[in-house]
Specification:
Blueprint: H1 11-22, H2 25-28, H3 41-47, H4 54-57, E1 60-64, H5 70-75, E2 81-86, H6 89-101, E3 103-111, E4 114-121, E5 131-135, E6 148-154, H7 163-173, E7 174-184, E8 202-204, E9 207-209, H8 211-219, E10 223-238, E11 241-254
Parallel strand pairs: 1-2, 1-6, 2-5, 6-7
Antiparallel strand pairs: 3-4, 7-11, 8-9, 10-11
The chain binds S-adenosylmethionine.
Length: about 260
């Protein structure tokens, strides 16, 4: 395991992600001002890109790097079956608790040692029984996953030790005509991804390489790029500190 993968095994990060995925606007951003359009990122990753006729068509969905599970549950509104994979045992355990009990208690960090007890609950209208959560490595996925109509990799690629290994597997996971959505703020950090494995954000002998250019280079051939979109997201660290990021979503159709 790469050193920084253990970040996602701490209780503090599990709590932070439960708030990010399931918290209400009031629980996350209780001010009369602030970036409200950055709320509900895990739900938007699905609602904005998964075709509405999926349910009728019997879609299968895959959520790579699912964390505590919100996007996977959202996929069940339009998919008959969803596979959701994350490397963190604690994230998968929390997602499975939400699935089994309809919710999970957690603590929101307010200030110093001060915490507020909250409950994350399943959103109305989802079908939790349709999700199979699995602990696993997006760079070394099981061979028996089958193929999918919709694959989401939300803010995953810049957390992998070798993102290219994951990208190479994608053509085999998406059915012809199916969709792949990759979102990322392209936050390349040597703690997660050795510099030599960064997809972009680097200077080479031939000039600068952006991550989007690199994605086009690697995915072109198997996929057509249909759309790129800026997607704000807000992660609350404590009552008076937030991470506001703008991920780029690229939407790909399998040839
Ligand atoms: C920045 S979080 C994004 C989580 C979620 N998709 C979201 O948008 O909220 C990155 C996620 O990738 C997971 N992850 C990191 N390395 C992974 C790997 N090798 N395989 C699968 N998941 C991994 C982490 O445990 C974490 O849940």
């Amino acid at each position: 395991m790469h050193m920084s993968a253990s970040l996602y095994e701490t209780d503090e990060i599990v709590d932070q992600y439960l708030l990010f995925h399931y918290g209400s606007a009031g629980e996350i951003l209780p001010f009369s001002f602030g970036p409200r359009d950055a709320l509900d990122f895990p739900a938007r990753c699905v609602a904005d890109y998964l075709p509405e006729d999926g349910e009728a068509a019997g879609f299968r969905g895959l959520d790579l790097g699912c964390a505590v599970g919100r996007s996977a549950f959202e996929m069940t509104r339009r998919c008959h079956e969803v596979v959701a994979i994350d490397y963190s045992h604690k994230f998968i355990e929390a997602a499975k608790t939400v699935q089994r009990d309809g919710g999970i208690d957690y603590r929101r960090t307010d200030e110093g040692d001060l915490r507020t007890s909250l409950r994350a609950t399943l959103p109305a209208g989802v079908h939790p029984g349709r999700v199979a959560f699995r602990q696993g490595d997006a760079q070394n996925l099981p061979e028996d996953l089958g193929d999918f109509d919709f694959v989401l990799a939300a803010n995953l690629i810049d957390r992998l030790e070798n993102p290219l290994t994951c990208l190479r597997r994608l053509p085999g996971l998406v059915r012809s005509g199916g969709r792949l959505v990759i979102t990322s703020p392209y936050t390349w950090l040597a703690e997660f991804t050795p510099r030599s494995a960064w997809l972009g954000g680097k200077q080479t002998a031939n000039g600068t390489v952006s991550t989007k250019d690199a994605l086009i280079e690697f995915l072109d051939g198997a996929f057509d790029l249909r759309e790129s979109r800026d997607m704000p997201l807000l992660i609350r660290e404590h009552a008076r500190k937030y991470q506001w990021s703008v991920a780029e979503a690229t939407v790909w159709q399998r040839r």
